[in-house]
């Protein structure tokens, strides 16, 4: 693996997304500020804003960094570099995650911090962690589908699937007895059902990204 | 194999509506090969296989001693590639592209790149999206040449350029290559472009290599003979007969194995040779393609 070239490609993707990243950072900071000082209404508005910004970053990363290479015909330029397609795939997955994960972590830490600081909603702790990881699962699905298919249509379908999945998972998780019992309580509870849910989510992430690597390594036509 | 930069043997690639069939190709180090074919003949697919961007279904490909596609990362360190459908990053400047590539290619030659920018009349601080198509092609050429590649692969670089920009690009390319000992593979459907810079010519049609030789040999051995036949005379079957045109007693015979002795041979067979016409590379290419297609149909 040519790590220095992979790093250079990740830096390139960051460079071309820098304005959007800075704007999203400002938006994220603003949302957290609203959540922190805006009372009950501010909490809701700020949270919606944060999730919207996360969805935007997710879409922007995939559309710009992954699909954009083919659409703008710059993929040929990249593939004339001394790089294999697996290295290219690594750079795209790591690049997208390195843009997305800091925002995602900010959201998770911010939300969990607020929950910990507010005893009346302590019971939402486990549910929030699981749903936050579900957003990461959705983003990994987008990255994998866009890389493997290089198709806008399939990527948009994956976006729709990811959005539906968030609602479905939210509904299902809220009905798992080990999580729903005490969800609206004033104590932070972490039961084995929550751990199992997280294991399933991370296994899905590993499976999707692993599949992306596997399918990419079997591709025979890159341009 | 050391003196051969590009080696294809029995290379096949199948698509639903097109296939490359048993491609064999040898390009000696230091030579410039023009790769001519109509649109959709298989030029780009062949060059993409050469670059490792498309994997052949069967056959052997070696480029600069590297087996492709397995060793493509090592091979690509020594290849400069410019293609009709290769685009640079619009929001970035030419200077950004040079800075991006410099640490990747160990032989990157910055003074040479600066000199080329001056020669190509390119402003390194200008964004790519602000350049004309001709300037973008020149920028892509600059970025390929400054790598100091041992093999330069140009896939239809002049396609889509207006006549002025096309001549400019070719002139710049020829002047840049004048004193270089570099192997070049130049594909185009424009025979005039290829004729100007190549010393080897290969024709490809419908996924098959139909002829390959050095340019002078092509121009020497292809001729059109304008004949006058006696009443009830038949067109003499000449060596290297490719096709016959004209009409009635005034046939025009194309041969790809012309020798001066052919004229007297025709006379002995009762046909008078009115004229022996040389052929341009374009005429040779078209005659070659037509005769192969006719034979294929028959």
Can you describe this structure?
The complex is a heterodimer of chains A (about 220) and B (about 300). Chain A is mainly alpha-helical and about 220 residues long. Chain A is built from nine helices and no strands. Chain A has one domain. Chain B is α/β, with parallel strands linked by helices and about 300 residues long. Chain B folds into two domains: about 5-215, Rossmann fold, CATH 3.40.50.300; about 225-280, no CATH class. Chain B has helices at about 45-50, 70-75, 95-100, 110-120, 135-145, 165-175, 190-195, 215-220, 260-270, 280-295; strands spanning about 5-15, 20-30, 30-35, 60-65, 65-70, 80-85, 150-155, 185-190, 200-205, 210-215, 225-230, 240-245, 250-255, 270-280. A six-stranded mixed sheet of chain B has the order 6-7-8-3-9-10, with helices on both faces. In chain B, strands 2-1-4-5 form a four-stranded antiparallel sheet. In chain B, strands 12-13-11-14 form a four-stranded antiparallel sheet, with helices on both faces. The longest helix of chain B is centred in the last third of the chain and has 17 residues, at about 280-295. The radius of gyration of chain B is 22 Å and the shape is elongated. Classes of the chains: A mainly alpha (about 220), B alpha/beta (about 300). The interface of A and B includes residues 74 and 84 of A.
């Amino acid at each position: 693996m040519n790590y220095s070239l992979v790093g250079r490609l990740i830096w390139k993707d960051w460079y071309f997304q820098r304005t959007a990243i800075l704007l999203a950072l400002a938006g994220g900071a603003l949302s957290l500020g609203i959540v922190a000082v805006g009372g009950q209404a501010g909490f809701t508005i700020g949270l919606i804003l944060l999730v919207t910004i996360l969805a935007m970053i997710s879409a922007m990363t995939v559309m710009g960094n992954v699909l954009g290479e083919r659409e703008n015909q710059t993929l040929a330029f990249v593939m004339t570099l001394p790089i294999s397609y697996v290295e290219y795939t690594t750079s795209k997955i790591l690049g997208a995650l390195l843009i997305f994960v800091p925002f995602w972590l900010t959201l998770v830490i911010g939300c969990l911090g607020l929950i910990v600081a507010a005893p009346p909603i302590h019971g939402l702790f486990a549910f929030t962690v699981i749903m936050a990881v579900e957003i990461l699962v959705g983003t990994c699905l987008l990255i994998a589908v866009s890389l493997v298919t290089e198709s806008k249509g399939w990527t948009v379908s994956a976006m729709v699937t990811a959005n539906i999945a968030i609602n479905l998972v939210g509904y299902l998780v809220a009905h798992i007895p080990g999580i729903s019992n005490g969800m609206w309580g004033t104590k932070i509870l972490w039961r084995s059902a929550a751990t199992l849910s997280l294991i399933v989510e991370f296994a899905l992430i590993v499976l999707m990204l692993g599949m992306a690597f596997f399918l990419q390594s079997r591709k025979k036509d890159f341009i | 194999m050391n003196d051969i930069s590009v080696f294809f043997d029995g290379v096949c690639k199948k698509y639903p509506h097109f296939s490359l069939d048993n491609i064999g190709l040898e390009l000696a180090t230091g030579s410039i090969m023009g790769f001519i074919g109509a649109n959709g003949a298989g030029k780009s697919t062949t060059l993409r296989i050469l670059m490792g961007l498309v994997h052949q279904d069967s056959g052997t490909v070696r480029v600069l001693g590297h087996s492709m596609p397995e060793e493509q990362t090592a091979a690509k360190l020594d290849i400069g590639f410019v293609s009709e459908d290769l685009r640079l990053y619009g929001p970035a400047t030419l200077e950004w592209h040079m800075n991006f590539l410099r640490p990747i290619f160990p032989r990157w030659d910055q003074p040479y790149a600066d000199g080329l920018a001056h020669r190509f009349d390119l402003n390194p601080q200008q964004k790519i999206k602000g350049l004309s198509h001709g300037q973008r092609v020149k920028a892509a050429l600059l970025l390929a040449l400054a790598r100091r590649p041992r093999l330069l692969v140009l896939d239809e670089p002049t396609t889509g350029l207006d006549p002025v920009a096309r001549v400019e690009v070719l002139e710049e390319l020829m002047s840049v290559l004048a004193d270089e000992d570099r192997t070049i593979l130049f594909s185009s459907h424009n025979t005039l472009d290829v004729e100007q810079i190549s010393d080897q010519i290969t024709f490809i049609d419908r996924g098959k290599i139909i002829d390959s030789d050095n340019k002078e040999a092509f121009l020497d051995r292809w001729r059109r003979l304008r004949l006058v036949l006696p009443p009830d005379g038949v067109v003499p079957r000449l060596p290297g007969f490719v096709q016959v045109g004209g009409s009635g007693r005034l046939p025009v015979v194309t041969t790809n194995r012309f020798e001066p002795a052919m004229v007297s041979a025709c006379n002995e067979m009762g046909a008078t040779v009115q004229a022996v016409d040389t052929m341009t590379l374009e005429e040779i290419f078209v005659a070659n393609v037509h005769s192969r297609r006719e034979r294929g149909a028959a």
